[in-house]
């Protein structure tokens, strides 16, 4: 599927029809431009994230891939110098719409960060944090959510006997899976992952990759990665970013076997970046 | 390289000189450190010898008296405790709230710089000026008189800038990725502050609080400006009672030492009590810091 055929956004009536389909777009980015002060970091981005798929975003350092993914949950706008034009639709709601509270968006769109960032609290409290801020007080229910989330992030077996210990006692890889569990606990629709394995050793990286594969049956995942093999291994579709532009966006197999743009080919064959 | 740029003989010749400079510098630093410590030791020696034999149970539990043998400082001790009872909560609430507002709500820019500069200026205002401020606003304008509440509020104003600045530092030391993690889950700013930022910053905020309290306990000038009485027999039992505090007691006894040499000993004895109190507070600050220090 080419980018152009996705540009026609279905109206609200049509959207109810397309929701029946398995692979409708959960995120639709149209003509997104972003500036840090006077420096333009993203140029006219057109990109779709489809349901229950893993989209990988690759590109050299400073190409805007992290900036883009942080735009989707409006994290990037915490920096006051950032200016944005264009539209990003999350399930047909413009995320920049003033009537769409950012807290609600971030409840639907979870994020896993580059560096594992557990809270200085117990393992249990880390996972229970999200449900608690969204109003769940029932202890039994919280315990259930924590267990389900930790199981979902494939770390339950490792931590079930030490839920009351400080999360800082876990290894880096365990901390990152804990952060994924924490993200699952708010039952998001989309999970954004910003280079989630760049601070991890190869074994932990493998575990997180396997986890991403399992999670895509329930969630839509967008993952920024520096590691092209990782993109090839785990994603359904891949976007190649360069200097703040989407150079190519296609099926992962196509990107890695037969890219249509010379620059994509140069990058994936390791000629630069 | 064609030639040797470093002449090994020259290097060897210069080594003794370099080592000598090294030693001299170390000595200079040590001397600077000792300067303060030695002066403190002299002061301690002086007050302890002056007060020797004067600090006993009777001294600690008796009220004021013109008869130096019967005089005690229970009034000053209870006044100091009353003062802490006001300064603690007032500075904690107002100071931490101000710091949270400046650090977490106001965007970096002119407004924040304006606020921060003024807080810093406030910290540099002489304490006697705060005393006159308290006299004007609390004692006269609000018609309280020189009571516990007026003294406590004046002292709170005096140490507020210290609390604000140290609380700001504590909040700034909380890594931004913890805030991001919380915001990333859809938490509001207040939820993030209450559940993530404040718990992480609290030990450090408390340390700053305690140090500010020990400053408040030792201050004399503003309370003298407020008109704290020199001789007070009844103990304060509420916010609107007259009171006196340890450093003010020291001040008046020192002045009166010209009349009666024994008053100097009483002043020295009061200083020892005051120093012990401060020592306890500072130790508590260090203990709290060590116990709750979190590695991020």
What can you tell me about this protein's structure?
Chain B: GO terms for molecular function: phosphate transmembrane transporter activity. The complex is a heterodimer of chains A (273) and B (296). Chain A is α/β, with parallel strands linked by helices. Chain A has a single domain, classed as P-loop containing nucleotide triphosphate hydrolases (Rossmann fold, 3-Layer(aba) Sandwich), CATH 3.40.50. Chain A contains 12 helices and 10 strands. A 6-stranded mixed sheet of chain A has the order 6-7-8-3-9-10, with helices on both faces. In chain A, helix 9 links the parallel strand 7 and strand 8 (220-224). In chain A, helix 5 packs across helix 6, helix 6 packs across helix 8 (172-184) and helix 8 packs parallel to helix 9 (202-215). The longest helix of chain A is centred in the middle third of the chain and has 14 residues, at 139-152. In chain A, 45% of the residues are buried. Mean pLDDT of chain A is 89; it is low at 1-22. The mean pLDDT of chain B is 89. Chain B is mainly alpha-helical. Chain B has 2 domains: 8-51; 58-292, MetI-like (MetI-like fold, Orthogonal Bundle). In chain B, 75% of the residues lie in helices and 0% in strands. Chain B has helices spanning 8-51, 57-61, 74-105, 110-124, 127-141, 148-172, 176-183, 189-218, 221-226, 246-256, 261-292.
Briefly summarize what is shown.
Chain A has 273 residues and is α/β, with parallel strands linked by helices. Chain A has helices at residues 3-6, 12-18, 65-72, 102-108, 123-133, 139-152, 156-159, 172-184, 202-215, 228-234, 252-257, 262-268, and strands at residues 25-36, 39-50, 54-58, 82-90, 93-94, 109-112, 190-194, 220-224, 237-242, 245-251. In chain B, helix 3 (74-105) runs parallel beside helix 6, helix 3 runs antiparallel to helix 8 (189-218) and helix 7 runs antiparallel to helix 8 (189-218).
């Amino acid at each position: 599927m080419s980018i152009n055929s996705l540009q026609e956004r279905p109206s609200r009536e049509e959207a109810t029809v397309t929701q029946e389909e398995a692979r409708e777009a959960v995120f639709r980015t149209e003509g997104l431009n972003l500036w840090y002060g006077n420096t333009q970091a993203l140029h006219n981005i057109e990109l779709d994230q489809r349901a229950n798929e893993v989209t990988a975003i690759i590109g050299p350092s400073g190409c805007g891939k992290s900036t883009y993914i942080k735009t989707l949950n409006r994290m990037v706008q915490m920096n006051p110098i950032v200016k944005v034009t264009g539209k990003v639709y999350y399930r047909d709601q413009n995320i920049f719409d003033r009537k769409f509270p950012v807290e609600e968006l971030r409840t639907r769109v979870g994020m896993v960060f580059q560096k594992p960032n557990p809270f200085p609290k117990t393992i249990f409290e880390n996972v229970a944090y999200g449900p608690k801020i969204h109003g769940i007080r029932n202890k039994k229910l919280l315990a259930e959510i924590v267990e389900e989330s930790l199981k979902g992030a494939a770390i339950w077996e490792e931590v079930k006997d030490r839920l009351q210990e400080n999360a800082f006692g876990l290894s880096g890889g365990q901390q990152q899976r804990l952060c994924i569990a924490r993200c699952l606990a708010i039952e998001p629709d989309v999970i954004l992952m910003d280079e989630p394995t760049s601070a991890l050793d190869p074994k932990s990286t493998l575990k997180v990759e396997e986890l991403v594969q399992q999670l895509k049956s329930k969630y839509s995942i967008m993952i920024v990665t520096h590691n092209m093999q990782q993109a090839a291994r785990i994603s359904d579709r891949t976007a190649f970013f360069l200097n703040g532009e989407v150079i190519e966006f296609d099926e992962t197999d196509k990107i890695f076997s037969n890219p249509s743009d010379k620059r994509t080919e140069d990058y994936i064959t390791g000629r630069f970046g | 390289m064609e030639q040797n740029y470093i002449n090994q003989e020259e290097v060897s010749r210069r080594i003794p000189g370099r080592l000598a400079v090294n030693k001299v510098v170390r000595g200079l630093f040590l001397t600077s450190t000792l300067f303060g410590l030695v002066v403190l030791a002299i002061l301690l020696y002086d007050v302890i010898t002056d007060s020797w034999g004067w600090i006993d149970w009777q001294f600690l539990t008796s009220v004021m008296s013109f008869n130096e043998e019967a005089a005690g400082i229970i009034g000053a001790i209870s006044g100091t405790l009353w003062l802490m009872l006001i300064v603690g909560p007032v500075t904690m609430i107002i100071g931490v709230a101000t710091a949270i507002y400046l650090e977490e709500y106001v965007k970096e820019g002119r407004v924040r710089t304006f606020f921060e500069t003024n807080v810093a200026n406030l910290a540099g205002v002489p304490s006697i000026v705060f005393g006159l401020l308290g006299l004007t606003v609390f004692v006269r304008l609000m018609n309280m008189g020189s009571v516990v509440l007026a003294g406590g509020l004046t002292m709170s104003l005096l140490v507020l800038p210290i609390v604000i600045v140290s609380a700001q530092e504590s909040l700034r030391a909380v890594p931004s990725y913890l805030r991001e993690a919380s915001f990333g889950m859809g938490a509001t700013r207040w939820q993030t502050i209450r559940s993530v930022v404040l718990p992480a910053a609290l030990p450090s905020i408390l340390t700053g609080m305690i140090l500010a309290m020990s400053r408040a306990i030792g201050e004399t000038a503003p309370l003298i400006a407020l008109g704290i009485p020199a001789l007070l027999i009844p103990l304060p039992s509420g916010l609107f009672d007259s009171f006196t505090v340890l450093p003010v007691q020291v001040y008046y006894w020192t002045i009166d030492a010209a009349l009666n040499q024994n008053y100097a000993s009483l002043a020295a004895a009061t200083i020892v009590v005051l120093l012990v109190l401060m020592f306890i507070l500072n130790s508590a600050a260090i203990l709290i810091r060590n116990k709750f220090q979190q590695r991020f």
